[in-house]
Amino acid sequence: QVQLEESGGGLVQAGDSLRLSCAASGRTFSRYAWFRQAPGKERDFVTRITITTRGGITSYADSVKGRFTISTDNAKNTVYLQMDSLKPEDTAVYYCAATNSIVSTQARYYDYWGRGTQVTVSS
User: Phi-psi region for residue 24, left (φ > 0), alpha (ψ -120 to 50) or beta?
Assistant: First the structure.
């Protein structure tokens, strides 16, 4: 059974950092992404990574570029999201997603999802 399990969310103040983890089990993936969903809003793309023999190829939403970093530990089948200089508008439930199919920033192309972890940034 394939599972993605996020961890690392919490309540922090503006300017603080958090690192989210997402551990995959049951299968290995070549593509991971992080999405987030704030109350009353749609699930938005945050960042994605494609694992290649030459390293990871990444892409970021403009709103997090320069502040967030996605990375993987392939030996642990785990993807991370390092979030620095957090802002109140980063408050959302963060979801890890994985696929072995096409590269995309759209949620519908990801086959597996975690349950999400809450990140709350106070001002």
Answer: beta
Hey, what's the torsion of the CAs at 104, 106, 107, 109, to 10 degrees?
Answer: -50
Only one residue has tokens 């502040």, namely 67
Nearest to 39 by CA among 98, 89, 96, 106: 89
88 to each of 14, 33, 122, 123, how far by Cα in Å? 6, 22, 6, 6
For residue 113, list its beta bridge partners: 97
Per-residue pLDDT tens digits of the chain, which is 123 residues long:
999 999 999 999 999 999 999 999 999 999 999 999 999 999 999 999 999 998 899 999 999 999 999 999 999 999 999 999 999 999 999 999 999 988 889 999 999 999 999 999 999
